[in-house]
Design a protein that fits this description.
This protein is an alpha/beta fold. The chain has helices spanning 3-22, 40-48, 59-68, 87-93, 103-112, 142-150, 170-189, 205-211, 220-223; strands at residues 30-34, 53-56, 75-78, 96-100, 120-125, 155-161, 196-198, 215-218. β3, α4 (87-93) and β4 form a beta-alpha-beta unit. Bound molecules: pyridoxal-5'-phosphate (PLP).
Amino acid sequence: MLEIETNLQSIWLRMAQACEAAGRDPASVRLLAVSKTFAAQGVAQAHAAGQCDFGENYIQEGVEKIQALTHLPLVWHCIGPIQSNKTRLVAEHFDWVHSVDRLKIAQRLSEQRPAARGPLQVCMQVNVDGGPTKAGVPPEQAAALASQIASLPRLRLRGIMSIPEPAPDFASALAVHQRSLAVYEALQAEGFGLDTLSLGMSADLEAAIQAGSNLVRVGSAIFGARTPQA
Ligand SMILES: *Cc1c(COP(=O)(O)O)cnc(C)c1O
């Protein structure tokens, strides 16, 4: 069996066990395979093993893979930082974007989304652990930005995403993910009708699932260690 397939099976097992520990339905959590820095061939192998959703951080690299794999029915998620001059590529090529944290970027994505494609599916990135240089809207501004995104015609607000600092243990990972859950539930209480809580990576997917994540983003545990990018 190919290594990617074996790795995917281990992740599906970890997800199922985490759901069981949390008393959740295993069908309620989806896997986003983060293929950044890995070749299109690895994506094709993961798809052959049953994986459909893929995440990319670097927009140009992601677009190249999307274009190389148009023969496969894949769903592509942009999960990396977006500069204004890259919004058109995201709007034209991706199905989802998880990293919207400013109105200006949201407006450009909506304006540039081609009419021939359905709305771009959006998660708002929320910064739940404070660091001033970190991306993401502060939790206290999440509702205001959510209203603005929800009013844009070519975007569909689906949920929130966060990337907390790596946590030293399960309890601290759980505590920080629960802050994202609180933001998500506050938005739900305001009637935004969200269905996506994008939390958890290779190292902390169990804590994220315990906190209520329904989309875990896993890269290295599927594709292997990444060579750091310059
Ligand atoms: C790279 C990345 C991941 C996957 O991280 P791993 O630790 O390799 O699982 C998930 N989410 C985002 C936003 C990332 O940039």
